[in-house]
Each structure stands twice: as C-alpha cells, then as structure tokens.
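Apologies for my clumsy wording, but can you show me some protein sequence, whichever is easiest, together with the matching structure tokens, please?
=====
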Amino acid sequence: MTNIENALMGAYIADAATLGVHWLYDPDRIAALGNALWRKPDAADFEGAKGVFVHHGKRRGDISQYGAQMRVMLRTLAHGPFDAATYHKEFTAAFGPGGWWHGYIDKATKGTLANIIAEKSPTGAHDDQIPALSGLPPLVMMGTALDTCANAVAHISNHETTAAYAPAAAAALHAALSGATIPDALAAGLDAAGQAARDPLAAALASDADPVAYAGDIGRACPLPQTLPVAFRIASVATGYADAIDINARVGGDNCGRSIFLGALFGVGDPPPPLWAARLRIGPDLAAEIDALAKERLG
C-alpha cells in the first residue's frame, strides 16, 4: 500500500482499536482492564467508573461514529474534489433516516444533519468538538489545498474554535504526507494554528508530563481545546504508530475522536501492524474504497 493508503487505513484501524474503551474517563479502570486495545465493547467495563457507554451492539473491530464520518468524506471525494452538495448527500446517506450507519450519533453530527435538512450554508453544527476533524485525513491525503480543507470543515463544524484548531491538524497531516518527521509535522501544525489554538498546542509540545497525566490536567473530553492538545502531547512522545494508539487508548476520554488524527499522522510513515488490519471488521471494504479513490484521483 502507498503511504496515503496506509494513513487512511491507519485512521480507521486506530478508531476501531480504541472502541472498547471509548468515553471511559477513568485511566485507572482502563489500566485494570489490561490491554486497552481491541476490547469488545462491554457496558460492564464502565460500571462504577466515570464514563458513558454508547456502543451497544458493536463488536470488536467495528469503527465508531468518527470512522463513519471519515468514510462520508472519503465517499464524497470519490466523486471528485470536495463539493458541499455531494458531501451533504453522502452525509445524509450515512446518518439520515435509513442510512447505512447503525450506531451512536453524537450531538455535532445531529446538528450538521439538521442544518443540511434546513439547507443552511455552511452546514456545520455550531459545535467545537472533535468530529470537526474526522474528514481531514481524506481531504489532506487527496491533495486538497489547506484553504479548501477549511471550507470543507465548515460544513462539518461551523465554529470559531474549530476554525482555530482545524488548520493545525490539517497542516500537521500535510507535512507528514510530505515526508516530515512527527516532530516537524507537529511544528508545522503549530505554525498553522489559529491564535486561539496556538498557546494550548505549544504548551502540549513543551510539556514533559506523561500524556495520561497531561490529559488529567487539561481534560480528556471531546472539545477541541482538549482533544487536539492531548493528541499533540501523545504524538510528541510516541515511538511509532502502535505506541501512539496504545497511549491514546490508555489516556481515556474521547480516544476514538483523537484516533482519527493520530492514526493518519503516524500511518503515513509507519504502516499499521498487519494483525491490526486483519482485526478491522469491514477492513476489506474500506481498503477497496481507499484503493479505488487513490487510483481514480492520484493515478
């Protein structure tokens, strides 16, 4: 597979690997469970601990709603460069009535769907949470200009906080795709960050705290001022793809949300372990979609 395909599959695999401890906000409980990765989603793991279990009926190796949101963007780009009307159609086909996604739908997704139905423009929910970044890996890997990425993100999340943080994530992914090391990619992300995001991301890179403890200090929940700095902190200390995803799972909170960015960032230069790829339940379908898009768009 090419580095682009590895990055996109890396995001999906990271999301699925983390599903069993998604929104478990208790790192001590996660540590007590043993291996945090590839756990079967089980409400019993959350009993008596801080967290919320939403993945009823999901099985080991399934993607979360974040992976589904990334797939919506991937399917949008299969039709050509980003187009809002096409994105709305694919988004509704996934999350609207009778859509192909069967699982939890978060507040941000509901808000975007409502805005699409109401024909607002841009359609993104006024929400500052990590779903805003789920579409970035396909956009960046398909060579989308950074200003077009910003326009696309506004159709996912139309919020001033998102406008500050999304350029940092997009620039970091773009730099990694261009061959930058992880530290240099993170530095590129920091340079591109909006004013409101620059200090929190700089603090994450300058910290010497363990990522689990760092997330305890600034928060491990869904808003971008927590999720992206925590992701930068994880990336700054991880030794490679597998290590980054393992740390991210153990940090807890919205680890699936962070997984999309981290999986793509590390997957570019460090392909996911083959055994992990084999555990992704719809892996062959996702790989086929990625391969078809890469051949169609990139030759």
Observations:
- The domain at 3-298 is CATH 1.10.4080.10 (ADP-ribosylglycohydrolase fold).
